[in-house]
Every structure is written in C-alpha cells, then in structure tokens.
Amino acid sequence: MMNKPTFIAGPCVIESQELLGIVAEELVRLNNKYDIDIIFKASFDKANRTSIHSFRGPGLEKGLEMLQAIKDKYGLRLLTDIHESYQAKAVGDVVDVIQIPAFLCRQTDLLAAAAKTGKIVNIKKAQFLSGRDMRYPVQKCQESEAKEVWLTERGNCFGYNNLVVDFRNIPDMKEIVPDVIMDCTHSVQRPSAGDGKTVGDRKFVPSMALAAKAFGATGYFFEVHPTPDAGLSDAANMLELEKLDELIGKLI
Fold first, then answer.
1. What topology does CATH give the domain 6-251?
2. What InterPro entries does the entry give (predicted)?
C-alpha cells in the first residue's frame, strides 16, 4: 500500500516532445517541493476517441521512444495505457505502470497480458460498473501473476452525455485492493456531448480531488496541459498545469 498519496499527471496524449518536457520539468519541481511520488502519464495512442477524425497520437513505437526519453532525462516513473494485448510487452519494457482503459476493463486477454509483464496494472473502473464489480478484473490480473494491481474511479454513466461520481466506490474498491486512485479529470467529462468530441468541466476538478480524499483515495490522476484549450485530446477537462501546485498542496 502507498505510504503517501501518489499523483499521476501528464497530458492526455503525446503531442510533441517539447510538450512532454514542459510538463515533466514541472512535475520534477513539484516532486522535489512536496516530497511526493509523481508518475508521468501520457498516451501514445488514443484508440477510443469519439470520431475517426480525432487526433490519436504518434503510435506505439514512436510514442514509447518519446516516453523513454522523458524517463532518461527526468527520472520520472511512467504510466501509459494499452488497448490491445500485443502492446503489453513493448510497453512493459518502458513504463512502470500499465493502465487499462475503463471501456476495456473486462477484456480478459488484455488484463492477462498486462499482468504478465510484471509491472503495476492500473485498471480504470468502467462507466457501467460499480466499485464492487471490479473484483473480477482484479482477479483476472492476480490469477495471471500480477505483482500489484491498482483501481481507478472515473465516474459512471448518467443518462446520455454525462457522468456522475459515486464516491462510495472508493471505499468499496479499497476492500478489493489497497490502492485506489481518483481520476479527477476524466470524471468531469461529458462524453460525446461536443459535436463529435468529448467535452467537460475542468472547474470541478479540484472538488473531485478533495471529495476523493475525504473518501480515502490513496492517489490522484490529473491530465494537465500548459494551455489545455489548445490540447489535441480531452482539452475541456484537462487541468491547467500552473494550477497543479496549489491543488497538490491541498491534498497532502
């Protein structure tokens, strides 16, 4: 179990090496300032975008090269997500935490492939499942020799084009695994509500984090960007990078 809160932060998708470097430098500064555990997050391929025309990222090979460069230069631990089983081994050679997207959290082969890398597996709770339902994805990982499994809350479907967070899912999932992360940015999304893209309300991100702290979350997930409105994916719900410092200060 984590001895202090873990913070997962980074841009939604890899847009450029320059962007990764800007974010990484700030995360290193915050890591040193607060003596916390910060994990750098970015996706090499956003395969679950609303539209086929949405920006997806540089792809597996190039994306892993760019993430490795961040690890080599800044010494940060890395997290990225996979969408297909064949990606697990290559990703596991670079990152420290392999994330399973919410929509894919019941995909047995994907979970098993991630578990077999020996890396931490972070499973996002699907928008259509309860916290207690997550014992089955965890069991799949554990029976596939996973060394450590985390769970992440990210809201539930609430009719069309909206999500709602039932914070009782956090203590429910802590009965399954010791470490439960709150995804504070994806939980404020409004899926497919923006004329072919997902939109959201980033103003609620700090409140999501503070509420999760009250319910016992052991870590927090933030997608951040220096100019989020210009971001190429999840622009509306990413937090301004400059606001991460103050928010972390309230959470530790």
1. TIM Barrel (3.20.20)
2. Aldolase_TIM, DAHP1/KDSA, KDO8P_synthase
Task: Give the start-end residues of each E strand in 45-91.
Answer: 77-81
Q: What is the pLDDT along the chain (252 residues), one digit of tens a residue?
A: 557 899 999 999 999 999 999 999 999 999 999 999 899 999 998 877 677 878 888 999 999 999 999 999 999 999 999 999 999 999 999 999 999 999 999 999 999 999 999 999 999 999 999 999 999 999 999 999 999 999 999 999 877 788 899 999 999 999 999 999 999 999 998 876 555 556 778 999 999 999 999 999 999 999 999 999 999 988 889 999 999 999 999 999
Distances (CA, A) of 77 to 8, 39, 50, 131: 10, 5, 29, 27
Structure tokens given for 39: 């994990």
Burial class of 22 by CB neighbour count within 10 A (0 to 12, 13 to 18, 19+): middle
Domain ranges of the chain: 6-251
CA distances from 119 to 97, 148, 252 (A): 6, 7, 26
Of 166, 230, 165, whose CA–CA distance to 12 is shortest? 230
C-alpha R_g of the chain: 16
251, two tokens? 């959470």
Residues 6+ apart with CB under 8 A from 140: 108, 111, 112, 115
